[in-house]
Amino acid sequence: MLLGIDxxxxxxxxxxxxxxxxxxxxxxxxxxxxxxxxxFTVLDELLDGREAGAVRRxxxxxxxxxxxxxxxxxxxxxxxxxxxRGLPFEYYRIAPDTYFLxxxxxxxxxxxxxxxxxxxxxxxxxxxxxxxxxIAVAAKFAxxxxxxxxxxxxxxxxxxxxxxxxLGSEVAGRMNFPRRAVTAYxxxxxxxxxxxxADRVEEAVQRRGLKxxxxxLKADGGTMPLAVSRRNPVETVFxxxxxxxxxxxxxxxxxxxxxxxxxxxxxxDIALLIDGVPLxxxxxxxxxxxxxxxxxxxxxxxxxxxxxxxxxxxGQAEIAAQRLGPAACLGGPAATLTDAxxxxxxxxxxDMARAREKIAGEAARAGCEPDSFAAAxxxxxxxxxxxxxxxxxxxxxxxxxxxxWEIVHRRRFRLxxxxxxGGAAELMVPLLAEKMGVPCMVHRLAPTANALGxxxxxxxxxxxxxxxxxxxxxxxxxEGIEExxxxxxxxxxxxxxxxxxxxxxxxxxxxxxxxxxHGVRVQMAEQFNMIxxxxxxxxxxxxxAQIVPGLIDEFKGVAK
Length: 560
Fold this sequence. Notes:
Mean pLDDT: 90
Number of strands: 29
Distance between the termini: 18 Å
Number of helices: 15
Largest sheet: 6 strands, mixed
Structural class: alpha/beta
Oligomer: single chain
Strand content: 25-35%
CATH class of the domain at 77-178: Alpha Beta
Radius of gyration: 26 Å
Shape: globular
Strand order of the largest sheet: 3-2-1-4-11-12
């Protein structure tokens, strides 16, 4: 049996799946003060009457990290940077407590300037004096030589024992120093809270007799073991929309171009599937306007959901961003989008007399008839959704995968259908599809598709390889693995590819992901010649290999 739990904006969904058959689904309102307890409540309901030992896998998608960053509730965090030569230091001022130190590493990993211990000590003492207990350290090109970061970490351990430390070279292996610094900073901001959450999950799983591996959904639509998530919790940011996208893939099972719309109580998340595969954001996840090295899907969110309050004001119908409670027809305190659409379409949802009463009240404030008010609200919601989709198409045109599709197929990208998931999808998606002139699908499991997506998403893992034949050196970035190249003259790009895949397989074995190795793809492979005096003296290779996001092998689709 497979367990999937997804924490949304207003509620937490859970599913128990066995051989494509949904055995049980649960939806419970979130306890915003304790999301972990909500997860455990859903877990208990799913396991009620079942043998815990029969569960083979548990995947959790949680908004914990997203909430910490969105609300600014993370504790004060210091960022120590070694930018080296190049742009002015102020260009890299990411956090209020940013410290710039001497030191420099060139692009080949050679230290061209050592750090100043006295300067490091002064910075750490100032951090400690301010009462800051979380520190991120990032040096330019540290993924090629992490010794400067490690030296600072040792000094911090001596001068400020007990402080949480995150090194940029350990959380991000790709080039681009600003993105690596941002990734390290947000990892430090969220690490302690995530560690406590992981502790509680481990304890809860043991107490319930679950022997199955526990995985956490990431922003790229893949999963990672709970133990691995402790190292870089910020990879779980935006995992909710990623769960929705994987749910759409699981329900559709088609190689088609589709827009996924997950409409919940407070927000709507939108993603694009190209030939049935979610489109990835080539620049990584963006947090507070800053790009990171977190691999993520290309997603957009809109503050519009089935529980969005609607009101009449200034002679017109308005849809508010806030949620005051559930729909009036379901016992809520105010008129909502659900009430308006139900009245407009003549649907029977809960107490329709109460829904009509609330809509009539708002219509009176707008100075129009209830039917006109409900129609205006519905049209405004549809217009917002269509506008966002068209905006996203313009943004997606810059993504490499989108351009490649058009080149390969020799025609403009065409939308095949809209896939609706989430509690409010059945209300809005058919109307939106009709408005845009495309087919749609709202599966019977749409209300819990996000939890389904989490349950069947496969693990992902990536390695970045850097090889310098002149230095006879091969490095697996982020993992800190270094090897000597035995025959540098004979070492070619194909050898670099093979080495990257070989190391990926080793890491996968160490992290219990061997079953997913058939999903390995070399994402990037580049060669640069080193020239001195008109002659080639060596070659530099950069290769990225990844177990790409997808569905676990045992999932063959949901039973009809």
